[in-house]
C-alpha cells in the first residue's frame, strides 16, 4: 500500500524536488492551496486536501486541515489493533510524512504594522499538524525545515528511517512550534504591554557547542538571535571558547561604538584595557596597547576595519589570544599562521557589525531580570549640560565623548581617562568610585603614561568631590558624568576651584 505525505509549506524552496523524490519512493502527495497549485504546475501528481477532508476549505482559508481525516490519519497508532480497526471503520487513511513550515509571521511584522494582516498570518492548522505528527513520531516523519529535505530522502531510500531518526525530527518540530508561539506572544506583549507581559520567552538558535563553558567542568554552547553569528561571524583560525565569545562581545561593542572611525579596542575578561582612534588602524592599535600592555598579553583585540599585513606584523609582536575585525586579509592571516594559539575571526564586512539587540537580560539565581537594552546615543555628550565656568574645546569634547562611551560599556563602578583620542587609564568593576579613579591613576603611573590634560568620564555620578580633587591632582582638565548626586553643588564647586570643565549628561549607564 502506498504511503502518503501531507505537504503544505509557506517557504516553497526545494519543495517540488522534495515531492518528486517522495513520489519516486512510493509516496502519494496530499497538499493545500499554493503548494498544491505549484506541485501540479510542475507535474507532481498531488491531490488536494479537500479530497481527504471531504469538506471544503472555508472562512477565507482559516479552516482547511483541522479535520479528523487529517489528524486521525496522522495520530492513530499503527501498533494498536484497536486504532487500526477504528481507522478502517471511520475511513481514515494513514498519513506517514508531514512536511509543514508555518505562515511567515516574522516577515509579516517586519513589513507591516497592520494588525488585521498580522492576525491573518498567525498559523493555526500548521502548528496543529506539526504537533500531531511529532506526537506520533513512532510512525510519522515530521519535516519542518527545507534544509532537511535531502536528509529525509536519504533516510527513506537507504533504510535509515528508524525510530531514533524520527525522534530527532520530533524534537526539531516541537522546537519549531515553541519558537513560533513564543515569537507571537513576545510580539503581542511588545505591542500591547511594552514588552513586559506575564511571560517572557527568550529563544535562540544553536550555532555551535563550545569545548566547555566558563570552566572545563561546565558544558557550553553559543545560541544566536536572527542569524547574527551565522551571517556575521566567520572563523579563520582556532575555535572560539565560551569565555572568548563573552570577551569578543564586549570588545566589538566598544570598537564599533564610533561609527566608521578607525577604532581598536583591547579587552581582558570582558573589560577594556586599551582603546584608541587614529587616522589609520596601525597607529590606533599602537596607542591602544600603550594603556596596559601587561593586561593586553593574551587578550582580545577588536579592530573596526580591515587587518592588513602591516597591522598583523605589529600585533604579532606580543601574544594575543583572539583578534576579531571587519575583515582580515589573506596576507595578514599568513603572518599569524605560525602562532598556534591565536584565534582569528572576521565579520565579512569592512567594519565591525553589531546586532543592536533591543532587549537585555541577566541570569540570577532562580530566574532572570529582563530590561530594554541600554544604548548610548551619539548626541548624549553633545547635549550634555555645562555646569562649570570653564568649557572644553571641540577637540577636548571628542575625548570626552570617547571616555563617556567607553565608560558606558565598562563594568561599574568605573572611570575612564582619555587623552588625544586614546584611553590612558581605566578603573572598572570596583565597589568604590574613588577606588576606581585611584586604581586607574596608579596603573597609568606604572605604565609611564601622562594623564595631564586628559578627559575623565564616569558612568554614574560622583557622590563626593574627592574624585574631582584626585583627578585635578593628576592633571585632568575635563570631566563628564551623569550628575544627580545630592552633593552635585560640591562637585561643581571643586571643578571650578581647579579650573576644570564639568558636564552633566543626566543619563546614567550602569553596567553590572
Strand content: 15-25%
CATH fold assignment of the largest domain:
Rossmann fold
Number of helices: 20
Radius of gyration computed on alpha carbons:
30 Å
Helical residue percent band: 25-40%
Instruction: Please report the first level of CATH classification, the CATH class of the largest domain.
Output: Alpha Beta
Largest sheet: 6 strands, mixed
Q: Write the CATH homologous superfamily of the largest domain.
A: Methylglyoxal synthase-like domain
Ranges where pLDDT stays below 50 over 5 or more residues in a row are: none
Distance between the termini: 64 Å
GO molecular function: IMP cyclohydrolase activity; phosphoribosylaminoimidazolecarboxamide formyltransferase activity
EC number: 2.1.2.3, 3.5.4.10
Catalytic activity: IMP + H2O = 5-formamido-1-(5-phospho-D-ribosyl)imidazole-4-carboxamide; (6R)-10-formyltetrahydrofolate + 5-amino-1-(5-phospho-beta-D-ribosyl)imidazole-4-carboxamide = 5-formamido-1-(5-phospho-D-ribosyl)imidazole-4-carboxamide + (6S)-5,6,7,8-tetrahydrofolate
GO biological process, one term: 'de novo' IMP biosynthetic process
Amino acid at each position: 500500500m502506498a504511503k502518503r505525505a501531507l505537504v503544505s509549506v509557506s517557504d516553497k524552496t526545494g519543495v517540488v524536488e522534495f515531492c518528486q523524490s517522495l513520489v519516486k519512493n512510493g509516496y502519494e502527495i496530499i497538499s493545500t492551496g499554493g503548494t498544491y497549485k505549484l506541485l501540479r504546475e510542475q507535474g507532481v501528481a498531488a491531490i488536494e486536501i479537500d479530497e481527504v477532508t471531504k469538506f471544503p476549505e472555508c472562512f477565507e482559508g482559516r479552516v482547511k486541515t483541522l479535520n479528523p481525516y487529517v489528524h486521525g490519519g496522522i495520530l492513530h497508532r499503527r501498533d494498536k489493533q484497536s486504532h487500526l480497526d477504528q481507522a478502517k471503520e471511520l475511513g481514515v487513511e494513514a498519513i506517514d510524512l508531514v512536511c509543514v513550515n508555518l505562515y511567515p509571521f516574522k516577515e509579516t511584522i517586519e513589513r507591516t504594522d497592520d494588525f488585521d494582516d498580522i492576525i491573518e498570518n498567525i498559523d493555526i492548522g500548521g502548528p496543529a499538524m506539526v504537533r500531531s505528527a511529532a506526537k506520533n513520531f513512532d510512525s510519522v516523519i515530521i519535516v519542518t525545515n527545507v534544509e532537511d529535505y535531502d536528509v529525509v530522502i536519504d533516510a527513506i531510500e537507504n533504510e535509515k528511517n528508524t525510530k531514533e531518526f524520527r525522534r530527532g525530527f520530533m524534537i526539531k518540530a516541537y522546537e519549531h512550534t515553541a519558537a513560533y508561539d513564543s515569537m507571537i506572544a513576545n510580539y503581542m506583549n511588545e505591542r500591547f504591554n511594552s514588552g513586559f507581559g506575564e511571560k517572557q520567552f527568550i529563544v535562540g538558535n544553536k550555532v555551535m557547542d563550545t569545548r566547555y563553558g566558563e570552566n572545563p567542568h561546565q558544558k557550553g554552547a553559543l545560541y544566536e538571535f536572527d542569524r547574527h553569528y551565522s551571517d556575521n561571524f566567520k572563523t579563520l583560525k582556532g575555535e572560539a571558547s565560551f569565555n572568548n565569545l563573552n570577551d569578543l562581545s564586549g570588545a566589538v561593542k566598544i570598537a564599533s561604538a564610533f561609527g566608521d572611525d578607525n577604532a581598536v579596542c583591547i579587552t581582558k575578561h570582558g573589560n577594556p584595557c586599551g582603546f584608541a582612534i587614529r587616522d589609520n588602524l596601525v597607529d590606533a592599535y599602537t596607542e591602544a596597547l600603550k594603556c596596559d600592555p601587561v593586561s593586553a598579553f593574551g587578550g582580545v583585540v577588536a579592530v573596526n576595519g580591515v587587518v592588513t599585513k602591516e597591522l598583523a606584523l605589529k600585533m604579532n609582536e606580543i601574544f594575543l589570544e583572539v583578534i576579531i575585525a571587519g575583515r582580515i586579509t589573506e596576507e595578514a592571516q599568513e603572518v599569524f599562521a605560525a602562532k598556534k594559539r591565536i584565534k582569528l575571526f572576521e565579520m565579512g564586512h569592512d567594519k565591525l557589525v553589531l546586532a543592536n539587540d533591543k532587549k537585555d537580560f541577566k541570569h540570577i539565581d532562580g530566574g532572570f531580570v529582563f530590561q530594554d537594552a541600554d544604548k548610548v546615543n551619539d548626541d548624549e555628550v553633545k547635549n550634555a549640560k555645562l555646569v562649570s565656568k570653564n568649557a572644553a574645546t571641540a577637540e577636548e569634547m571628542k575625548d570626552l565623548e570617547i571616555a563617556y562611551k567607553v565608560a558606558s560599556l565598562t563594568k561599574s563602578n568605573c572611570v575612564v581617562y582619555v587623552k588625544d583620542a586614546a584611553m590612558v587609564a581605566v578603573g572598572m568593576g570596583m565597589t568604590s568610585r574613588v577606588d576606581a579613579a585611584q586604581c586607574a591613576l596608579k596603573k597609568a603611573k606604572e605604565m609611564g603614561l601622562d594623564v595631564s590634560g586628559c578627559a575623565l568620564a564616569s558612568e554614574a555620578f560622583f557622590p563626593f568631590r574627592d574624585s574631582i580633587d584626585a583627578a585635578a591632582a593628576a592633571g585632568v582638565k575635563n570631566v563628564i558624568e551623569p550628575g544627580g548626586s545630592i552633593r552635585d553643588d560640591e562637585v561643581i564647586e571643586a571643578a571650578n576651584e581647579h579650573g576644570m570643565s564639568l558636564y552633566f549628561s543626566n543619563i546614567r549607564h550602569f553596567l553590572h
